[in-house]
Design goal:
Layout (H helix, E strand, L loop, with lengths): L6 E9 L5 E8 L2 E8 L16 H14 L2 H4 L5 E5 L21 E6 L5 E2 L7 H16 L2 E2 L8 E4 L6 E4 L6 E2 L7 H27 L6 H5 L1
Antiparallel strand pairs: 1-2, 2-3, 3-5, 4-5, 6-8, 7-10, 8-9
Helix pairs in contact: 3-4
Length: 221
């Protein structure tokens, strides 16, 4: 169990509009980490057994599955270090802005990856996009729907002899049993695959000019 005194907040990397999700760079002991904090949502009703409405549970369950299946070890997603649940913000000064919330926040702890770049024309390699596509297909085969398959969640770390490519951000993810889920869920898997294939094709075209053109809607929609 991580104690508040062990965590040094270094800076805020990202917040959404309503502070529902806050991403911090932190130091725990000698390790740099990502601490992704989710505002508490309580028990939210779901309109379908295929849908988990709580962002923290989407993300944490996805990473637990990915860790269990070896995706973290392969480096195709950030490593998952665990969760901090039902955070008492009175003990966490950097989260004091959440003190009036009805429900306590939760957090996931992830690998901090330096030199992370969003995939784009400037770092495009055919090998990179093929590996991202293959990883997405593997997600689908085990019943993990990413839910946000845009380039903002496809990352590249340029290195030798081979770039590292990975998927991030699983707070839109859903885990289902393929073949037993609802028809619209199965269609969502097909849609993600088709969307990825189109993006890969368009990005290869844009890489020839070095400018975002055919992929515009994927970056700016």
């Amino acid at each position: 169990m991580v104690q508040p005194s062990e965590v040094e907040f270094l800076n805020v990397l990202k917040k959404d509009e309503n502070d529902r999700v806050m991403v911090y760079k932190v130091k725990i002991g000698h390790r740099l980490c990502i601490m992704k904090v989710f505002r508490g949502q309580g028990d939210c009703p779901s309109f379908s057994p295929d849908v988990e409405p709580r962002l923290f549970l989407r993300e944490s369950r996805a990473y637990r599955l990915l860790k269990e299946k070896g995706f973290c070890e392969r480096g195709v997603v950030p490593d998952f270090y665990g969760t901090i649940e039902n955070i008492d913000v009175a003990l966490w000064p950097d989260l004091s802005h959440l003190k009036d919330d009805v429900f306590p926040p939760d957090a996931v702890l992830l690998e901090y990856i330096p030199n992370l770049e969003r995939i784009g024309p400037e770092n495009f390699l055919d090998d990179n996009i093929k590996r991202l596509s293959q990883t997405l297909q593997e997600f689908h085969e085990m019943g993990l729907l990413h839910g946000d398959t845009f380039p903002r969640n496809m990352m590249v770390v340029r290195q030798q002899p081979r770039d590292r490519v990975l998927w991030i951000d699983f707070d839109c993810a859903q885990i289902v049993q393929r073949g037993k889920c609802e028809e619209w869920t199965e269609k969502s898997f097909s849609f993600e695959g088709e969307m990825m294939a189109e993006f890969a094709e368009f990005l290869a075209e844009d890489a020839k000019t070095g400018e975002i053109n055919k992929t515009w809607l994927y970056y700016y929609d």
